[in-house]
Design brief:
single chain; 120 residues; mainly alpha
Length: 120
Amino acid sequence: EFKKSKMASYTVTPDSEPPRALPWYAGRMEGAPSDFVIAMAQDSTAHGYRRIFERARPARNAIWAMLFIAGLAAFFFTTVELFREYYSYPVATQVTVVAAAAQPFPDITVCNLNPYKKSA
């Protein structure tokens, strides 16, 4: 189901300003605030938000509302905990210097892989 744009036609004259683009909520603010929330939910791509406002399914709507609120709560809890940890400036640095004993020099073998030279 496609909705027609609320953009009105206009006439361009040399002295006129170009038309301003209407915001995405233009034409939806006339009714009650609940109408705006429902209209926004129908166009939303947030997972579960649209399902809260489906008609003729009150039990499913309640379940979706609880899941959506639980997801928001988990998001905010995790965000607050991450900010608390970040701004507590935890620093755990430990440096240990150990003098190494004399290491034996490794044996080195140079191989000549030239098949045409007799010294190989």
